[in-house]
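Key idea: predict the complex, not the pieces.
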Amino acid sequence: MRGAKSAKWVAGAIVVALAATACGGNGDGEGKSKGSGPAGYVSIDVGEPQKPLIPADTNESNGSYVIQSIFTQLLDFDSKGDIVYTNAESVTTDDSKTWTVKLKKGWKFHNGEEVTSKSYIDAWNWYANIKNNQQNSFWFQDIKGYDDVHPEKGDPKAEAMSGLKAVDDHTFTIELKYTMPYFNYKLGYTTWAPLPKVFYDDPKAFGQKPVGNGPYTFEKWDHKKLIQVKAWDDYQGPNKAKNKGVQFKAYTTLEAAYKDVVSGNLDMIRQVGPTDLPKYKQDLGDGAIEQPYAALQSLTPAFYSKTFKDIDPKVLQGLSMAVDRDTITKTVLNNTRTPAKSFTPPGVKGNQNLDTDVFTYNPAKAKKLIQEGGGVPGNKFTIQYNTDGGHKEWVTAVCESIRKATGVDCTGDPKPDFATDLEARDNDQVKGMYRGGWVADYPVNANFMKELYHTTAEANNGRFSNKEIDGLMNKADKAKSLDESVKAFQEVEKKLVDFMPAIPLWYYRINGGHGKNVDNVNVDFHGDLEVWAVTTK
Amino acid sequence: MGRYVARRLLQMIPVFIGSTLLIFCMMYALPGDPVRAMMGDQAYDPTVVASIKKDLGLDQPLLQQYANYMTGLFQGDFGTQIASQRPIADVIADAFPVTIRLTLFAFTFVTLVGIGLGVVAGLRPDTLQDRGLLTLTLFLVSMPSFVLGFLLQYQFAFKWQVTTPTVTDSTDFSQLALPAIVLASLSLAYVARLTRTSIAENLRSDYMRTAVAKGLPRRRVIGVHLMRNSLIPVVTFLGIEIGSLMTGAIVTEGIFNVRGIGLEIYDALTRREGATVVGIASLMVLIYLAASLIVDLLYAVLDPRIRYA
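Result:
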């Protein structure tokens, strides 16, 4: 019979299909561990790093968490933003141009190789080389000879930067192209970590299985699920691990991670999602974390746009005074932000209280200033934001606040996602303002001005350009000491109020938490939880 | 039969090429540059972006890129993810088994429970149990899956603590049960209603009366004569449903933290990882094609009058 024959055939096909899927099902080695992982380990909701684990190729937060646990650079910062030497004995300079680094002796990579001047110099040269396409390569651009290894076009002319010289195994010098009094602060960024020799054999494999000199050794990377690192007994730095290891667990949503913290399957969460914010203090009790960190959100006018071309700064001051920061941070943002009072967040060196009312809500004065400045062209403008990042609510609220206070019509200009948002900014297609955000790379006020408002700054997407400000910043960079430079940048900050390259809105606050199984959870200056200091109960 | 299968298989080739080209063009048309997006909104170096794009061949024209992609595909190379630099084949191999497990679980659930409920209700139309089923399925159809997901998660994981709120180990079927049931609920309702109607209709047909009149045992009347004829529309639906279950898992996978294909394709889309999206989507196309082929072949089993030459 025809039917019976085809039945056999179909049955065969189904058996084959089932067998195939069964094979697939057993093929991947998933850990059977439940709860918070091996005894003494702590877990945190750090998702899948975007990129391989190479220090100079990561600037997003997931990856840098893992890299910071495996690698240690020359120095680090305490919660106040002061320098703490880790791998370096000292970093000194006489003229802010040539810096001498002395390394601590006896430091080793996890594979036993000693950390020497060469480990640093070779690594930095490799990072900076254009052929290696490292995302953070521009961090080395201050060093003399950077343009030889990283030309704008074509192949590199040299293999090494001429500014880096080893004096002996544990001393080397860095010569910069120009003076930069806060250069040593830059060295605290994870990008400046050294590399062992084994890296150069196969950088690709290394990125999946890194060997560092940090407080933890790499154990395993179960893609999209978990990265596990183990405390390293031989670590000599001040940030030695106080737990036995860390599991960085990937969660798809903040809500899912939060649920796991509450139910005890996860120890720490970096950020509580909006739905759980109203009740997280009640749920977590002492485990709730609420702390400010060095990051700032602002509205940045596109100074090339029809609306804000040649705008009178008074108008921007007026718009700034039309934003009711107190109410919006309390209601719409659920107290996750602190109203801004300057162009630099607290926690960076030189943050000051500007003697101005530009950041205070004052509808009457706002209206007056806008009128004096000639008004907003067309009496309306837009704020560009990406809809995939939870910005819609506050952009709407800010617009509402401005409209109510001044009558200037303001609407959101949503972009479907971050990629589209960035593209519009890069290509100078922002129609009005865009939402700007900046997290400190290093805790010095220069980081919030030089990188954002200098005419040549890469992140100056508003294309703000002012000769006077540029000049002041260049001068501040030539200062003899850090203190002088910080002071000079404080002066720049005071001047910025007159030009308003952006309208600062609020400082970020971390709203995270931890469960009952762990203790000593602290936040560092850029809002990361200090995983190494966490103890288990 | 053999020729029919061969013809169907051959038809798959243009469908496959057409659909991949379409997806490829759509990804290309989307605004946003994946390499640039990777750099975030902090400072970055355009030279590095240009250099990475050149290395990945993203600076070439669309058709050239597509040709390169297809050549790679036929050599078994799905390409490389832009950010992670992992082979896409690895990424898919990580995520696919998870989704397949989830889908098979959900599918089994749909088939057994859905058909079961439908038969029970269909055999006694317009009784209390039939109305009960209609109400239940109406409830399931109208409930968005994320509501049901959160509801069940809250009840079972937090209130009663019979299961974990999220899936930490996707090989553990007790953890997968909840997401699978949520995923299955919508199809379950359709299958149950479809079966019910089909059964209720066929109950009144001539061949049923003949079968009963012949004095056949009730088990045989229902099991062979009634079921076999009533299941044709259900099987069609189920076959197509395999594909939708797999792609439809995005919401459910999100709620329960299941690291499957749904999330993978969502991530890839937001990051503009064209090659990953096309890779996963082409596999989906293949699965749909295979499923519909199996469905067509199953017809012949259920109804010998349907023949394939």
